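Figure S7 source data.
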Amino acid sequence: MTGDMTTERRCDFCHTEDDNLGELYVHGKYAAHYKCMLYSSGLYQVDESEQDDTFDDFGGGFATGLVIKEIKRGKRLVIIILKPFLYMCITI
Ligand SMILES: [Zn+2]
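Tokens for the predicted zinc ion complex:
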């Protein structure tokens, strides 16, 4: 393995680099796990068929504007992994 600078990014929701939380999407200075966005109360996925030319995909079908708004809200999403495929999410 050679040095890879991109692995330094941490998710802006859970502040970890936990691979169990899905792919880490990086958009500009923001980064978010797929599952952190999926379980964030203020976020929803936009179906590909509903995305128009102006839709800015943060990753995984989440609108960039909404993701950044949610990150800026300063909520810290904690995802507790109870078992594989069984998660509990709380915001603190
Ligand atoms: Zn995360």
